[in-house]
Design brief:
The chain is built from no helices and 21 strands. By secondary structure, the chain is an all-beta fold. The protein folds into 2 domains: about 140 residues, Immunoglobulin-like (Sandwich), CATH 2.60.40.10; about 90 residues, Sandwich (Immunoglobulin-like), CATH 2.60.40. Strands 4, 6, 7, 9, 11 and 13 form a 6-stranded mixed β-sheet that branches. Strand 14 and strand 15 form a beta hairpin. It starts with a strand and ends with a strand. The N terminus is likely disordered.
């Protein structure tokens, strides 16, 4: 699987009325995540420059936590990413390596690897806007790849007239959730729910808000993908 970053993005349209031209970098990274274990403390990723100009990329690894369900980053000294900065010619590739300086713990540790494009000096006569890309990839360090997340689900109505779906990961490994489908238990009435990839780290939580309140005691069926596998659970709106 590759993360692809095209040379033009929809957000750039906003600048069309104020600048004469826009230049944005373009590169791919494969794979899009890494898992480090005691038996494999180093992982390799490949960065490819799909643009028409040389790209200078800088790496930074940060510790990743989710207090109150929100992503939070902090400096990390126990993850090494090399080379820390490099140049890729158009059409060229660069292999980068990510390693852990510290043995795995019983509970998985999570990090993010940021790849930032360093802006190049503008060419003579260029008066447009130069866009620099920044992406991040998840890096996980764990002792046993066989461990699995343990998810606890709850559903309740809020004072603001919304319905809250709450999940807690009681396991020792992250959960990667996607492709959500929420419906009545009869399966004939799909309900709107945000459908994007969600990571829930060990001990962390995540919330979804539905704009329509659901009667207490009602039962809903949630289907999703958890780390690429099908997951299903029934949810009951808590009685107040």
């Amino acid at each position: 699987m590759k993360a692809i970053f095209p040379q033009a993005a929809c957000g750039l349209v906003l600048f069309a009325v104020t600048v004469s031209s826009v230049i944005a970098g373009s590169f791919q990274v494969s794979p899009v995540s890494a898992t480090l274990t005691r038996g494999q403390p180093v992982s390799a990723l490949t960065v490819r420059n799909t643009g028409t100009e040389a790209a200078v990329i800088q790496l930074e690894a940060v510790a990743w936590s989710q207090p109150d369900g929100r992503d939070q980053y902090a400096p990390a000294v126990d993850i090494l990413a090399t080379p820390p900065i490099f140049t890729i010619a158009p059409g060229g590739t660069q292999v980068i390596r990510v390693g852990s300086r510290r043995p795995p713990d019983t509970t998985e540790r999570a990090y993010r690897l940021f790849l930032r494009e360093v802006p190049s000096p503008p060419k003579p006569g260029f008066s447009g806007l130069r866009m620099s890309l920044q992406i991040s990839l998840p890096i996980f360090v764990l002792q046993d790849v066989a461990v699995a997340p343990q998810l606890e689900w709850q559903m309740e109505n809020t004072a603001a007239g919304q319905t809250l779906i709450h999940v807690t990961n009681r396991g020792q490994k992250h959960a990667r959730l996607s492709r959500f489908k929420l419906s009545t238990t009869l399966g004939n009435k799909p309900l709107p729910m945000e459908d994007h990839v969600v990571y829930v780290l060990p001990g962390a939580t995540h919330d979804w808000l539905l704009n329509t309140p659901i009667a207490p005691g009602s039962k809903l069926h949630l289907a999703a993908q958890s780390d690429g596998r099908s997951m299903q659970t029934d949810l009951i709106v808590a009685e107040k």
